Amino acid sequence: MKKLPLLLFLLAPFFATAQIKDRLDSERKWFMPDHLKLQFAGNIGFLSGGPGYISNNKTLETDLLFGFLPQKFGGDGLFSTTLKTTYSPWSIPLKNSYYIKPFSIGFYLSYTFGKQFDTKLPSHYPVGYYWWATSFRPGAYIGGKLGKDLVVNKRQRSLEMYYELGTYDLLLISYVQNTGYLRPSDIVNLAIGLRYGF
Amino acid sequence: MKNFPKALLLALGMTLTACEGVFQYNPNQVIFKDSETNLNQKNIERIQAIPLKDTVRFILMGDTQRWYDETDAFIESANNQKDVAFVLHAGDISDFGLSQEFKWVNEILVKLKCPYLTVIGNHDLVANGPAAYRKIYGPMDYSFEYGHNKFIFINTNSREYVFNGEVPNLNWLQSQLADNRDNKNAIVVAHIPPFDGDFDPKLQDGYAGLLANDPNVKFSLYGHQHTFRDGDFYEDGVHYYLTTSTGERGYWLFTTWKGGYKAEKIEY
């Protein structure tokens, strides 16, 4: 059971690649993902990656990412899985099939695996002793993207780079109650990522 | 090209060290700068380098959890007290057990004119808190001597260990009290006092008995209840002091000398 997250994490891109090949020969099935993402940082793993979908009007993306923070970089090996949704209302075309999406806003819910984390308060605590779950963290971010339309194997593809400035519930609460000492920059951190659309 | 993923990871690793804090990987990460590790031992060495006087003055404060504005205000009050050798933090440094919170509290407490020491609180044991505490402060049970005093810090957060009978570690406490040939004042510091519901009821009598049966123990120090309390609660000659939370803007100022002490309640 402990190895399940690792397995999911390692296999996610593999499945996705298999699906790309499948689609070359047939019409796209509704459940096929529209893109793959690879993200660095952002409180959902040192690196995280996985498949996602985009709405028909190309403004709303929803992703399922599997993340890992190696012991080497975090003092503790942590696996997590994250459901993420990003809304980018505007796309501005530039020269040479480049485009920018100047503004994105999004939310995520992340789950970190580990027996030290709980979703429900264990019964040896009185009701409400700790009011937050330690395994799930909801967070929010704003950001932007730079993309380029590509043609790969005679098919329309896109490659995007994005950045996100985000925070999560526990840091936000800390800030709101301590505006004298904490500054917004104390609770905001940066994530950068790649999105390959197909 | 074969080494590309390795090179990418290395590049990211270098970015990590260059942009400390800009990137965060998991709320439960345990990442600290070198200047943020093993602080209790480092601060003990600083305390022991302070020239001895006839009296030793120190502050007992605690429960800084999610009260950064108030902790910042504490610094000014504490720095205005004369001849304070060190500050004792009675636990609940963090609220959610996050490394980020330990870092914030340390950032504030390093503005003290004197070193500070901590004992672990129940909130510091939440989620990855134990790993974070060990990294930034060190072992959860430890002791040091300065002047006429021997300070013994012990983890008394029994509920976090499902009252398994091992926390607090009474054998360790007994050996620490016994190892006191010069009969220094033995001052036991912990987060949860023995008469609190979060202290293992099976260990309460044993714990209080160890303190009562040691003639070197005159008083003992705690936090957790977020209110000032003091008294000889077991009528056994040991005076228990509880400090209020930092959110309540108060602390105890102790002055100790050979064979005696004085406690003053300070509000700011």
Automatic annotation (TrEMBL), chain A:
Residues 1-18 form the signal peptide. Keywords: Signal. This is Outer membrane protein beta-barrel domain-containing protein. It comes from Dyadobacter fanqingshengii. The lineage of its organism: Bacteria, Pseudomonadati, Bacteroidota, Cytophagia, Cytophagales.
UniProtKB/TrEMBL annotation, chain B:
Residues 57-227 form the Calcineurin-like phosphoesterase domain. Gene3D superfamilies: 3.60.21.10. One of its GO terms (molecular function) is hydrolase activity. This is Metallophosphoesterase. It comes from Dyadobacter fanqingshengii. SUPFAM superfamilies: Metallo-dependent phosphatases (SSF56300). PROSITE patterns: PROKAR_LIPOPROTEIN. Pfam families: Metallophos.
